[in-house]
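Complex 461.
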Amino acid sequence: MNFRFPENFWWGSAASGPQTEGAALIDGRKQSIWDFWYSIEPECFHHLVGPEHTSDFYHRFKEDIQLMKETGHNTFRTSIQWSRLIPDGTGEVNEKAVAFYNQVFDELLANDIEPFVNLYHFDMPMCMQEIGGWESREVIDAYVNYANTCFSLFGNRVKYWFTFNEPIVPVEASYLYNWHYPKITDFKRGAQVAHNTIVAHSKAVEAFKKMNVDGKIGIILNLTPTYPRSESPGDTAAAHISDLFFNRSFLDPVTKGEYPSDLIDILIEQDVVPTVMAGDLEVIRDNPIDILGVNYYQPRRVKEKEVPELEGTPFMPEHLFDPYIMPGRKINPHRGWEICEEVIYDIMVDLRDHYGNIPFFISENGMGVEGEEKFRNEEGFIEDDYRIEFVKEHLKWVHKGIEEGANCLGYHIWTFMDNWSWTNAYKNRYGLVEVDLKNGFKRTIKKSGRWFQLLAEKNGF
Ligand code: BG6
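Predicted structure with 6-O-phosphono-beta-D-glucopyranose bound:
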């Protein structure tokens, strides 16, 4: 074996409630923005497949947890759906949801799989969106109350908590680039959403600490390190700015307790500073996380802005740099994302050297492929050697980072079983386990799932 990992390394996968539970409006759950958006614009979803079924984990979690065992999991992340636990956003708790999540956590624990629980995975309850979503202070309070409810209901079973998954994605997708509902394109409102999300996060961390829950709390960030086209001052300045917007905007406040000062300077200069209420900066300062989840899929490459924006165009970060497509880059054609394995090592070194060597784990990394059924073998399972290679090549760099002192505690693949992925629906498959939509969501372990079991058993490869 060439790559042996530290003892008690976390091997597992990540998923989310809205992408796997199904049972959309069953047992008291109410709409999230996804259910609502699908009801008004189903054509925005690949093959018109919406969030109503999503793999049916709600009914099949026992079978699924056995498959997790068979694929070597010692840890598994999912998320609680706010719209299931507290269907009206605030107020009454849905007892059927409590029973469901308790059964899931118990079943995981009975199978020696540590549950990691995230509280928010892009899934704003529709009633909360109606009062302003993350632009509203009322929603911050409602979220903190929801987080508190989760800690007190499940804190005896769950030891690893995460406030948000990729909180920058709703900023980009719903407030900057017109990808997701409510499809607003307004940087200042996006900045408000980002700031309010960070306040909500910090207040949830504060509540967790006050409650003295026996466990750790953190956040999951998608880090997309930025590389300049060249070492020229224009290109490196462009990369620095892009890094401020897309990585350090969240990473710095949750770890160091403050926003990068050069990011604030840019917002002031562009006249897009969000409203900051009394006490916000203090709550951010006083509540650093215990642990960080790092989702890594792809780097970002930029160059100096070539043609300046027209005077008066509403501000967007891309006014300060241009995207750069590196010649000869390796790409996953199904997703259009660059594959560059060593970037995962650069993230680890950055966390080691500039973020106090904070404990972290790779909380998502994976490869989405369309049309995987063509790789089915005579025995009836999918031979996804490309996925095994993808994971191995990343793990080699993770191993190197650990050897050089980075504080990495585990590796979670995205994802356990093929699942519904927002507007891409079931287009690209990421699972260790196939979900056959034509056969009642039948589950079959792929070659990568079998390989992952050996990886976990041997603690290396
Ligand atoms: C991650 C998200 O960014 O990417 C997941 O946390 C998502 O929720 C995954 O499913 C893959 O996304 P996509 O768009 O390729 O299906």
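Residues 53 and 64 are 16 Å apart (CA to CA).
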